[in-house]
């Protein structure tokens, strides 16, 4: 039986065809409860103010920027937020319609979303992206026609590739062999972090040595493979502690720790507080 969400969390409603595009003009946000994303989101913000809160981080909102939210993340906007721009929402089943050639771009942008949550845009970037979002929105609002979903997926592919090119972390050659391997690693971690925490196991699946994988991650991300795995585990643990009523013991086993004590030691080593202290902090501030 599925456990209910924390009372301050609202879950995504089902979206027809797992895809939607909205155009916003000075949009206000009346509900500040955290929103659990079951779809990926791309926000193109042409003007605005306020703050986005994604998982445990805050991002000031201004014009000329992108915000990316990956499925599984928790997000909301502050009460004073006003946004003008576009919002794309898409599920994995819709993305499967996009040509395979764009998969690498999506993997880097969304499998390690915390590194790409907010992307600033210069004027040229904005002038290139805005018409694409507008065309996609126009296409979305048209009456149904044969292959409409495939047409929208093709536009989404173009947008994803453009964002990947803009993203500073990808501009150093995201099609290089090293970056392809790095994306493969991120994909594996996002799917298997509940089953294994070992760098050696991921390296074996990729057909490379543990040392090669660690060097690869240091070149592509500036941190080691173990740091990336641990970051995924800590992010998921924080979400569960803050926004669910699951006992620490259940969270520990869900994340494949042998004992609750092992999980608590891992969590405190990486955050400087125990799981109970972390949860208690948010209970006391009413979140």
From TrEMBL:
PROSITE patterns linked: HTH_ARAC_FAMILY_2 (PS01124)
InterPro entries linked: Homeodomain-like_sf, HTH-like, HTH_AraC
Single GO molecular function: sequence-specific DNA binding
Protein name: Helix-turn-helix domain-containing protein
Domain HTH araC/xylS-type: 183-281
Source taxonomy: Bacteria, Pseudomonadati, Bacteroidota, Sphingobacteriia, Sphingobacteriales
Gene3D superfamilies: Homeodomain-like
Pfam family, one: HTH_18
Organism: Mucilaginibacter rubeus
UniProt cross-references to SMART domains, sorted A to Z: HTH_ARAC (SM00342)
Keyword annotations of the record: DNA-binding, Transcription, Transcription regulation
PANTHER family membership: ARAC-FAMILY TRANSCRIPTIONAL REGULATOR, TRANSCRIPTIONAL REGULATORY PROTEIN
